[in-house]
Design the sequence.
């Protein structure tokens, strides 16, 4: 067995939530230490804590590509931050050897007034590269980012996609022994995502680097990783062959959520700009007892509170497979809306989706480019297959199954 390049030994991470302070430092430290030891603390403080990680142990050998899967808040990013020494564990320890490159907050350290060229040297230096290393890899970094034409333009004029491409290109061209990657494939277009995956594959297979990769894209986990670990509520649920782990993870959340309502805006999902009021999926069925089949039209209804006095808003509806593959991203034309309760809808026609499980996320955007709030995974549903006059009972290929007309004509006959 290969020697471990990273050893995570019984790591736990404890956070206090909300306001912290009894008025005296002595009392605060005493409450904190009781929480660390698992002892009960005062009633008014006991509910305001979170164990982001609980007794996590992992051995990661050199050259392995490890995928971390789990829902939002499962502890994946916390574990990466502890591995990269951004955060310290509350208990336990992490031992490792070799230079670590962290792609956790892509673009940290970029200065908007500087050009792309200047930011490559600035950010590379922040990430631990020497000037001669940056100079030697400069052309490769620029080519990978695809922003050659704008390299001497201040990055405040870059689009968000160009900004992220350049930031990832700098971080990806470090020469680390260990590469920590957190959700970078959630940004950029399909071509750039393929380049990112290719870079990570090259780092592990050809250069023998160790890669720890966090993603909600199960297909990327299965294709890239040699082992997967499923985290839930800060604990390791399962570890092993990626296909088996991701299948078990997806199966655990194959549930139906057709409606959610939040009567109190203060406790509803959102922020200082947007607060959700309700989301609902309406199957337009002839009879309520009918199953949701591929021919069933569906309608997504949503309401939210706009807390801005006046804003140019657009709402996008994102449909995903349970594996994280995006089926569509649709939105309406942006328009000016005042502060208050807004309502919208989106219709999914029948004979569009194939047999399978899906979820819907809703995003509210200001001025076409500034995301205000993303209500992730707010609706889950399953579509059952239905075919008339056929003996085929397997799953047809593809995520969609539109009913396009196909014709066949007899041109001539032979005797």
Sequence:
């Amino acid at each position: 067995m290969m020697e471990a390049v990273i050893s995570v030994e019984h790591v736990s991470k404890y956070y206090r939530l909300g306001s912290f302070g009894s008025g005296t430092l002595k009392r605060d430290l005493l409450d904190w230490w009781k929480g660390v030891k698992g002892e009960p603390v005062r009633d008014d403080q006991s509910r305001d804590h979170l164990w982001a990680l609980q007794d996590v142990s992992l051995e990661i050998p050199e050259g392995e590509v490890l995928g971390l899967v789990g829902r939002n808040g499962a502890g994946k990013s916390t574990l990466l931050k502890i591995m990269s020494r951004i955060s310290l564990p509350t208990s336990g320890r992490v031992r490792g050897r070799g230079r670590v490159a962290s792609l956790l907050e892509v673009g940290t350290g970029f200065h908007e007034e500087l050009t792309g060229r200047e930011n490559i040297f600035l950010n590379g230096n922040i990430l631990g590269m020497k000037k001669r290393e940056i100079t030697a890899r400069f052309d490769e970094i620029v080519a990978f980012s695809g922003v050659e034409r704008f390299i001497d333009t201040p990055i405040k004029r870059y689009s968000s996609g160009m900004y992220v491409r350049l930031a990832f290109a700098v971080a990806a061209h470090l020469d680390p022994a260990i590469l920590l990657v957190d959700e970078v494939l959630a940004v950029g277009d399909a071509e750039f995502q393929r380049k990112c995956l290719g870079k990570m594959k090259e780092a592990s297979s050809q250069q023998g680097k160790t890669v720890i990769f966090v993603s909600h894209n199960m297909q990327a986990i299965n294709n890239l990783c040699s082992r997967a670990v499923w985290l839930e509520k800060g604990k390791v649920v399962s570890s092993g062959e990626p296909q088996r782990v991701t299948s078990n993870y997806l199966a655990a959340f194959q549930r139906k959520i057709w409606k959610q309502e939040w009567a109190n805006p203060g406790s509803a999902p959102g922020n200082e700009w947007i607060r959700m009021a309700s989301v609902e999926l309406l199957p337009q069925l002839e009879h309520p007892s009918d199953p949701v089949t591929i021919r069933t039209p569906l309608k997504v209804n949503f309401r939210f509170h706009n807390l801005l006095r006046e804003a140019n808003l657009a709402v996008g509806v994102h449909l995903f497979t349970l594996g994280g593959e995006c089926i569509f991203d649709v939105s309406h034309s942006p328009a000016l809306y005042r502060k208050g309760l807004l309502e919208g809808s989106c219709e999914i026609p029948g004979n569009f989706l194939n047999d399978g499980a899906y979820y819907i996320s809703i995003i509210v955007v200001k001025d076409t480019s500034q995301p205000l709030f993303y209500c992730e995974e707010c609706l889950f549903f399953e579509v059952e297959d239905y075919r008339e006059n056929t003996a085929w009972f397997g799953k047809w290929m593809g995520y969609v199954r539109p009913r396009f007309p196909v014709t066949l004509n007899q041109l001539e006959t032979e005797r």
Observations:
- The chain has a mean pLDDT of 82.
- The chain has nine helices and 16 strands.
